[in-house]
Amino acid sequence: MSKKINEKIQSIIKQCESLSNDDIESLPNYKKFKVFYSKKSHKTCDIYLLCAFIFGLLAIFTTSISYIGIEHVLYYSYDRIFSINIYHEECLAPKLETLIDIFRPITSCDICQHIDHIERISNITREEFEEKYAYTNHPVIITDAMNDWLALENFNYEFFKRIYRTNSSALRGVEDNCQFFPYKNKDEFETLGDVFNMDFDRAHMIDDDYKPWYVGWSNCDYSTAYLLRQYYSRPYFLPERSESSKLDWIFMGTPGFGAHMHIDNVDLPSWQAQVRGRKQWTLRPAPECFHICKELTFIVEPGEIIILNTNVWYHKTSVVSEDEISITIGSEFD
């Protein structure tokens, strides 16, 4: 039996040896095999090229580290990729808002499905505010809570420039321990000190072709907080057992600029008092509520306070004053 099989194999081999290239190419499965082998060869080649490219980058990177130094390589990489200055950041992990959005808790659409405008109210009791607005995630504007605030007359660019003067404890507190948001001006304002060192004409919008600016920062220096709170008082409508955060947030800038659309990652709802200028707000529901809830756009006028949970509402702002900078101060409350 094995002898017959061997003879058959030898016969097939002789037939194959007698075939010309034309005979082989005329076989039905030759073209399929050729296409398959060509694709496989290309894929293999692409993989080799990709590996060579990666190893080349690694070689350049490791050579750069040994030649330039790890500190300079990190500085350049973070500056180019994340726009982070490693000398001014305590944490080198970039704050990627896209990732924060992806992993945030799902929002209940009950908070926004019946809201089609922002109410403006006054003379509200603490009990009514607590029941309807304080913890319901229902945004509202209070129009009469700043009537006796000295901030309305005293807060301006020069006032804050004096407080956050060069080498002051207030400025060091912000630059060492607090948050600073330069928004669209991040290429020119690395610290709050840069804001108060800008050209006088630009700061006060003297030239018609001035370059707009808008910044925000938290104040976590207790002595500075005590000084600021001599110019404003606790909003009367906050529930009696509620405590405001010891942290002040201040936002200031010229017409045309503001904060981009985002959602915050803070602990509590907040109030923001519009001390100077006019600011347009846009509130957008979470993506899972687009089919139920409406986007809201409105303007907060000087002397008004908006109450908003920025952890559940996406929001952006834009200063819309014609000839005045916007100054807003606010705080969280529990």
Automatic annotation (TrEMBL):
Name recorded for this polypeptide: JmjC domain-containing protein
Annotated TM spans: 47-70
Domain of life per record: Eukaryota
Domain annotation JmjC: ranges: 223-334
PROSITE patterns associated with the record: JMJC
Pfam families: Cupin_8
GO MF annotation terms: 2-oxoglutarate-dependent dioxygenase activity
The entry's keywords: Membrane, Transmembrane, Transmembrane helix
Signal peptide coordinates: none
